[in-house]
Amino acid sequence: MEKHPTIVGVVGGVVGTILLGIVVWLTIAYTGVYNVAASDQHFDAVRWTLDTTMHRSVANRAGGVDLPENVSEDLLAEGAGHYAESCAHCHGGPGQEPAGWSRG
Ligand code: HEC
Fold it and tell me: Which pTM was predicted?
């Protein structure tokens, strides 16, 4: 038995690991074994992956966004009105907790 790994052994291990990863990935995708229902929480590792990916993605791209220079009071009020009407019942707002039903 050899004491040191051979190139063939190392390459075989890397390729085998990649193939195993592809098999696991496709098995999860095609069997539907993973529950994506909004009524159940993700596994902690999945939640962490989704949250971290979203925050890092936004952070990486937000620097290139040009903010409008002169935002009038009317435009701000209009936006706040849209938020209050369409978003606040789930996301909450200053002094407003999200609606209980939106937690699901
Ligand atoms: C029916 C409930 C609901 C409504 C209404 C709603 N959202 Fe959401 N929103 C969600 C949920 C659920 C998420 C995912 C949160 C998570 O990933 O934990 C989300 C995520 C987001 C995110 C991503 C950031 C984050 O923290 O996850 C933004 C931005 C967002 N919503 C903005 C809005 C805006 C703007 C409106 C109104 C136009 C709105 N939402 C209306 C439920 C809602």
Answer: 0.62
